[in-house]
């Protein structure tokens, strides 16, 4: 497994894969000159930018565009395979996103992670990387992201909820504290996040729950922590988003 002191930005290749394991992760803010396709093979990874949050559980990956200031975090052990690629090395999605990783891509990235990225690539490695570059854009995007509003007043509301996802109240309550009308706040959330305020709060709770469940917390505990008094309602929302109950998803 590749890990340790190798600086990805110093590698001469146009595309390569590194595998790393962290007992926990609280990465400082940084930007990379290459795009990153960060596959999670164990655990749950959160990727934060100045204006968004992406959460990838096992069998998923976060796609990060080059030059985007970000940090990665995980409260529990996490195992990653990271594909680094120059802009001309593969066809990139237009925005950062979370993708489901199928069995073929898992095998391809696993094989590529065994190569020594500090050495020149031979013909076998180049063929494998070409297949990866061909397959990555075909993966399915999954709705495990959250864009924050840019307007400072609406951002005040978003930050208050992010600090306490279980916080009760209707939009009028939050808007008053942010010195904005509820109507204007609702318009800003829809325009700048492409979600209504209610949808935005539900997505925040889902992503927070994913991170907490990934750290080993119980379903009941997490449901209460993110604002559900009825555990069955939380399970229904989780299943609707991810296709399985929390117990089956993290089995």
TrEMBL record:
Residues 155-251 form the HTH araC/xylS-type domain. This is AraC family transcriptional regulator. One of its GO terms (molecular function) is DNA-binding transcription factor activity. It holds the Pfam family HTH_18. InterPro entries: AraC-bd (IPR003313), Homeodomain-like_sf (IPR009057), HTH_AraC (IPR018060), HTH_AraC-typ_CS (IPR018062), RmlC_Cupin_sf (IPR011051), Tscrpt_reg_AraC-type_HTH (IPR020449). PROSITE patterns: HTH_ARAC_FAMILY_1, HTH_ARAC_FAMILY_2. It comes from Paraburkholderia largidicola. Gene3D superfamilies: Homeodomain-like. PANTHER family: HTH-TYPE TRANSCRIPTIONAL REGULATOR NIMR, TRANSCRIPTIONAL REGULATOR-RELATED. Keywords: Activator, DNA-binding, Repressor, Transcription, Transcription regulation.
